[in-house]
Design brief:
Blueprint: H1 2-16, H2 23-32, H3 45-49, E1 57-62, E2 71-77, E3 81-88, E4 94-99, H4 102-115, E5 123-124, E6 133-140, E7 143-150, H5 156-170, E8 173-174
Parallel strand pairs: 5-7
Antiparallel strand pairs: 1-2, 1-6, 2-3, 3-4, 4-8, 6-7
Helix pairs in contact: 4-5
């Protein structure tokens, strides 16, 4: 979903000619000169590669809506394995398993910690009907935090987490091919 949005923006930009190769690099140099990055403000290689975030599982569930919303649930473990159940409007219907890139799981886990996910509210909602709900789950050992986000009412950082979980699944290696397995 997020990838489709980015691809759409890139296509529109290419068609309208608004995007030039190196444009942002040139703008950065123009605004900031040839300043070197302050490495004290950058993450260390150890921080980039760290698996010391405490997150053991990340999950997402998308519910029905009035329309053609994707309906599925997935739980991804820190070893890269996942289980998935597709119910409607998804390529992989039924029960499936597979693997995601472990490094990307850990990068997402670090991002989740950086967003303060553990301090977010347990539920967000708008007074409207027929919209989908997205549940996200983050497990740290036997402790779990599940957030309900109805009608995309939560903060944008929650939406970013939802989209990044979906991105992991889009790039996953599935143990079974898509189809009507149940």
């Amino acid at each position: 979903m997020f990838n489709k949005l980015i691809l759409g923006i890139m296509v529109v930009a290419a068609i309208t000619g608004n995007c030039l190769a190196g444009e942002l690099q040139k703008l950065h140099a123009q605004l900031n000169g040839n300043v070197e990055a302050d490495s004290s403000q950058s993450r260390t290689m150890e921080e980039i590669q760290s698996r010391d975030h405490g997150i053991t599982e990340i999950g997402i569930e998308r519910t029905p809506c009035f329309g053609k919303c994707e309906v599925y649930s997935a739980v991804i473990r820190s070893d890269g394995t996942f289980r998935f159940f597709g119910e409607a409007n998804v390529r992989h219907m039924g029960r499936h398993t597979g693997r995601v890139n472990e490094e990307e799981f850990h990068e997402l886990a670090r991002f989740i910690n950086d967003t303060g996910h553990a301090r977010l509210e347990h539920a967000y909602s708008l007074p409207v009907t027929d919209m989908p709900t997205v549940f996200t789950m983050v497990a740290r050992g036997d402790r779990r935090k599940v957030i309900r986000n109805y009608a995309n009412a939560g903060p944008t950082k929650l939406r970013a987490v939802e989209e990044l979980i979906d991105k992991l699944l889009l790039e996953a290696r599935w143990d079974t091919p898509p189809g009507p397995q149940r």
